[in-house]
Structure prediction request, 661 residues.
Amino acid sequence: MNNKVPNNRAWLLVLPMLVLVAFSAIIPLMTVVNYSVQDVLGPNARFFTGTEWFESMLNDSALQAAFLRQISFSLIILAIQIPLGIGIALIMPKRGWQASAVLILITLPLLIPWNVVGSIWQIFTRGDIGLMGWGLRELGVDYNITRNAGDAWVTIVLMDVWHWTPLVAMLCYSGLRSIPEAYYQAARIDRASKWAVFRYIQLPKLTNVLVIAVLLRFMHSFMIYAEPFVLTGGGPGSATTFLSQSLTTMAVGQQDLGPSAAFSLIYFLVILLVSWVFYTTIMHMQKDKHPHGGA
Amino acid sequence: MAEITLKGLAHSYEKTPTHAADYAIRQMDHVWHQGGAYALLGPSGCGKSTLLNIISGLLEPSEGDVLFDGQRVNELPPEERNIAQVFQFPVIYDTMTVFDNLAFPLRNMNTPEHRVKPKVLEVADILDLTPLLKRKAKNLTADEKQKVSMGRGLVRDDVTAILFDEPLTVIDPQLKWKLRRKLKEIHERFNITMIYVTHDQLEASTFADKIAVMYEGQVVQFGTPRDLFERPAHTFVGYFIGSPGMNFLAVEYQGDQVMFGSQPLPVSALLKRAIASANASNIKLGIRPEFITISSQQTTESIPIEVASLQDLGTHSLLSFMLNGQPFKARLPEGHPPVGETAFAHFDNAHVALYIDEYRVEAEHE
Prediction:
């Protein structure tokens, strides 16, 4: 027998949450949706355009190029930062004052604002007064981020790795610390090699923090704006112009509200889609292939 | 084959231990014979897990030697000791299937795959894990996981001893006895030394042939479950074994009488002589609640008590009473007549034990 009493007044309890979410997410998002389907010429002159802006945005070759650059950038930095972060976490001291010292040292880049990171690297890479730029020139390397697209790319990737690998390392470090000592003891008794310990104990136990790390780093890097903007201004040419910079130019520089609204929505949906696919795939991999046993 | 001998073993977690309290394990000598089923019983913090980790090699003792068949193994890491250990919380390799988990120790030793399979199947069969072999270990229940971690110890042919560190802590009560019986079965089937650490006397006595009771870093008694109950060698054993534990009375010999505070005790002549000749200030008499009889009539052998409460436990009742300001327990059989305000306790002299400086002394030998 079902003893539950239907009481629709319970919905009232959800109301405060709904109001909060409406103001924080739904209403701003709807404004953007509103702009994306109209051509607003003035306060009293607006025309419904349907999917026109979306189509033109998807067919814009400059944006397509920026999109490809963006995807490449995110993949490159993930491919470097995730393994590097795991590696750093594995060699970090486990206890004592050394652990605290290393932890503070490694966190420092995370505390620096985006703009400042860009400025630091901008000065760092200058050929006349920057340590790296000057050093490389003295070594005979023809290094110039304002002329050479390859140099600009390498520098931006390097900057992002410097700025954000600590986040991955810290997440992994906390994940490693939460593995009970008994696992390592059992592995010793089972005569597991160092590699086997990593492969079958540490890595599986890190899955959850790595999912968070990958998602955070993907979303972050996909939205990167201030750092390359300060460092290279998107150049040379448009070699390091990423999506958010294109968007800013369009929305703020040219005041093309309709197209940039459509573009913003596409941008948002791409991030959402990629994150969802990634998360679902990982969660699916952890499930049993034979939920009812082999027999 | 392994006979595990502990020689002058002591361990301290301090760098420079100065007094006895710094030691997790105090100087001890002990032999675990090949093929025995042993339990290491004691309260939390008595050093039993430390001792287990020293035997398995996870910990190096600060003093003394660990000998396997007479060979000193102090410095040998666990992977070279031919032992397996099952931990309090089941340790399994999450991403592997049950089969791969069981095969893991064998594969780590580069055993050819055609020899891995039959061995894994055999162990899975003993532990009733066969239907689960293809499942991922992560999704098993706690008792299945614990069986898998046990299985990893059994697949290796070179394992001569399995150490259990409170392995049933996370198992549901209904499954505990099943697993315990499984352990017993495995012990009978393989000629393996098993040492089982627990703080549960019931677990210890159902599993082990011989129990070592640990207290403050020392083995205070090593004997069969029956020995521990009937002849506790140390006051702690008396108190720890049995539910409730033994009653103790600190007594003095005064003017031809054995006094418990202001209450003279009607003890046997033998015991009286032993107490009179004891050259110590710490003299205690111990009596189990099972051997105290309560009546409403006073005899020359009984003493008046102050009844506190009576608890009905179904098969028997438990009487709490005060004597000389100290709480006592007596176990009354089913159907015992009700106990009134005035009652008298009679201690069965055959079961009154003498403890001098906390250790049992046999009155007969005095």
